């Protein structure tokens, strides 16, 4: 008999979590203005708010923490990090930052000007925020298939070459660079194929443009290339990663995802002019160039995390857990963005809560219902997160409205996945009775989902 699949690690340290009663949760979510970001973590039983900075580091990473060099300038920990990044990507210029959005802030301060257009595949919200905050336009060129959650295509994160070519042909002078987000978080943790990466490179070359990878989940993307794209089965993850970055000019990285650290990020590039242009902003916003907002010990852990998580076994364990949860949801007929993404499952809320009008935010309503059901905290990736149109100030209802269940790396077991699946089934079973959603009582002008306040729609 073939042996079943099991994790490529064993557990060395545990942290208790606590269940609560429905009455307690009713009270807590009301006090949080029905925004799960405002809940206290101790009031959450299973936390799927994000996979960002919430993973469990390895024993080697913790050992690296003890060896951190905390020198202000020229710390060996910086060179450990720089060497690892250069080895994996081929990029020689590295600027550490405290997290991914800081990398965007530093680099975009140099690259993005008012009136610019930055095409890309479903820009992540902070990326969009850093573009729109500079009065530039984040121009989405994701393939249309990504909008149909029930369509099974292997690389649903791809950029549409026709859309990309059109915007370049019409606005080339306004475009400072192209962004490729690997994997495409907003479209459901969906990967971008190597073929697509190469197509984008060719189009960029035709118009003399550079390509920036938003790389938070580059290793998961490489896993999907290995397992889904012809010609890559026999390559190692590290070989695939190198081939991906051979087609890019630079990267911003939120290391809190695929490097499995609690905090960290960086910019890396092959171009001296990008490095020279950005480095002053690093000193201004983050810190000196060899720490950029990170401790020496954090840079050591990050270097080791990058090395470990570009190995197949680690990625297989991670992605198989997401697939496991997907299979459980399939048993109950719960609709999610198909196929299962790399770091999360994205439930198609308007397909579940068919009676809740879009103006009352179905995905936010489902998020609250799941919390009330079992103390599970997911996250709305939908109409609230989409913010208002910067010109008309209308809500943007054009995209998907999803409840994201992000799975932290190496944190929960498949027993927890079973609890999540059954809790969601219970909500699904009573979906016909859920007819009203929420209305906004307060919101910030940009990136409102973190702080938005809501009340039940009347
Ligand atoms: C694709 C992508 N880019 C950028 C970021 C921003 O990174 P950070 O949260 O480290 O600032 C994230 C965070 O979730 C992300 O998923």
UniProtKB/TrEMBL annotation:
A Pfam family that the UniProt record links to this protein: Beta_elim_lyase
Keywords: Lyase, Pyridoxal phosphate
Enzyme Commission number(s): 4.1.99.1
Cofactor: pyridoxal 5'-phosphate
Domain of life: Bacteria
Family: Belongs to the beta-eliminating lyase family.
Modified residues (N6-(pyridoxal phosphate)lysine): 257
Protein name per its UniProtKB record: Tryptophanase
Keyword Calcium: no
